[in-house]
Write the structure tokens for this entry.
Amino acid sequence: MELVENDETLDDLQLGGINIIQKNDAFRFGIDAVLLANFARIKKDMRVVDLCTGGGIIPFLIAGKTDAKSIVGIEIQEEMVNMADRSIKLNKLEDKIKFLHGDIKDMRLIKGLSKADVVTVNPPYKLKNSGIINPNNKNAIARHEIFCDLEDVIVATRNILKDNGRMYMVHRPERLADIFCIMRKYRIEPKSVQMVHPSAGKAPNIVLVEGHKDGGAFLKWEKPLYVHNEDGSYTSEIDKIYGRVK
């Protein structure tokens, strides 16, 4: 069986020899996923669950960067799960990564999972009613709250995490009030926030949030991260995250 189909590409993550299959006409991973995998603090032998996993980029990045014991990705689009499964075979990571086709609102599925030390999620950013949306479009599903919204993500996270487990999310700064309110509603305490700016002098367009299940109230603001220098080149911090420099 050919692992890479005609409408797909094979992309080198430049991380431990890992390659990932991606659809030409579907949502392709960007800097958000790379930043989230770097932001998540994952120790040896931890169990990780990645919600809204898409083509599985975050599980593969975590597998390449950490000594996590197991990483489970959950995705509602069967086509994306099939593609992610082929990436597992390609990289011979069957002993570490598993993908599940399912809906994170399905509590039978969610509660049937082994409790996780860490949940990561790069959820749809845009509200369902923002703009014209084709509900059958794979890109729209990835970007808009069509099949799940922010509250669905937090509820699933609450049920998956073990006691004192940690959640790591990447989102948009304009949704930060919603994120904090819903996290507290379900007793996942915001503990750490990092703003990501396109460059110095520009407003942030990405936010990284860490939350602890049943954690105490104390919020730490991390040093801002800048993606580009004034000349348009990547900053040294971004080069380090991508592994281009030590």
